[in-house]
Structure formats: structure tokens, C-alpha cells
Design goal:
With about 170 residues, this protein is mainly alpha-helical. The protein has a domain at about 80-169: Rubrerythrin, domain 2, CATH 2.20.28.10. Helices cover about 35% and strands about 5% of the residues. It contains three helices and three strands. The chain has helices at about 1-10, 50-55, 125-169; strands at about 80, 85-90, 115. A hairpin with a 5-residue loop joins β1 and β2 (about 85-90). It starts with a helix and ends with a helix. The model has no long low-confidence stretch (mean pLDDT about 75).
């Protein structure tokens, strides 16, 4: 309320060039963190109240001792070898690897790797974990190979049932 009253009084008084800054913009020595603007008439307007001018003329901060960020890009996606189940999740992105990259476990070329979505744990490339993953991959690929055959057999069965029912009835 006092700020609004002070703002109302200062806006009704004709602007004059005073050498003493207004009390709200002055920086008393007890408030070392607050500092007045370098040119107190630069943003002076009847529209802005003195409290808004304090916000606009916030002191600029010097360079703070911020945490250092490295420019090293970690691989966001893991890739799995289709032959042995090895998971590649090193710092170098898989796309940046040369075409002559081979799986360190089985020697499969880079084209035998595919994207791997599940979360990768620390022991992802242990022998027993890798063998279990390889068995799962082989099972998934076997289902993938059998699916077109099953679809063809199903379509042939439906066609045979259709012709049988049309001839009988």
C-alpha cells in the first residue's frame, strides 16, 4: 500500500531533474546486493511504478562457478548383435562407428546389429545373461519366420472351407 501511495505521489508531481535519486531506487549501504540503475532516467515512465523499475534494473551477475558440461555425447540407444546377444552401449554412438566394426564376441559385422529398446543393465554382456538373451532372440526370429507360413495355411484353410460350404449347400 505504501508503495502504491508513493508511486501515486511521484507520478502526480511534475518530473524534475533532481540530483538525489528517489528513495526506492537508492541503494543504502546496508543492502550490498541491491544496486541502482546506471542511468536512473533511462526507463523512467509514468506507466512503470518504482517497484517495477527495481525488477527491471536487477543487478547483472558475474560469471558464476557453474558445473562444467562436457561435450561428449553418450549413446542414447543400445544395439544388440543378432548372432550372439552382445549389447553395444558405449559412449561413441553406433552410427558414428566405421562400417568395418565387428562384434567383439562373435565377429559379426555391423549390419548384424539392430536397435535394442529394453533398459540395459551393468552386467548386460556377462556370458550367462548374453546366452539367455541369444536364446530369446532365436525364439523371436523363429516365430517371425513361421508367421508367414501360418498366415498362408490359414488363408488356404478358409478358402477350402468356403468352397466346401458352397458345394454342399
Amino acid at each position: 500500500m505504501a508503495l502504491q501511495a508513493a508511486a501515486g505521489l511521484s507520478s502526480t508531481v511534475a518530473p524534475s531533474r533532481r540530483s538525489i535519486p528517489p528513495p526506492l531506487l537508492s541503494s543504502p549501504p546496508s543492502h550490498a546486493g541491491l544496486r541502482g540503475p546506471s542511468d536512473r532516467y533511462a526507463l523512467r515512465s509514468a506507466f512503470f511504478s518504482p517497484s517495477v523499475q527495481l525488477l527491471l534494473s536487477a543487478p547483472s551477475r558475474g560469471p558464476a562457478a557453474a558445473a562444467r558440461f562436457s561435450m561428449r555425447v553418450t549413446s542414447k540407444q543400445a544395439y544388440i548383435c543378432r548372432d550372439c546377444g552382445y549389447i553395444y552401449n558405449d559412449r561413441t554412438p553406433f552410427e558414428k562407428l566405421p562400417d568395418k566394426y565387428f562384434c567383439p564376441v562373435c565377429g559379426a559385422p555391423k549390419r548384424r546389429f539392430r536397435a535394442y529398446e529394453p533398459a540395459v543393465t551393468k552386467n548386460a554382456n556377462d556370458t550367462d545373461v548374453r546366452k539367455a538373451r541369444k536364446a530369446q532372440i532365436k525364439k523371436d526370429e523363429a516365430i517371425g519366420r513361421a508367421l508367414p507360413v501360418a498366415i498362408a495355411v490359414g488363408v488356404a484353410g478358409l478358402a477350402g472351407l468356403y468352397f466346401y460350404l458352397n458345394n454342399v449347400y
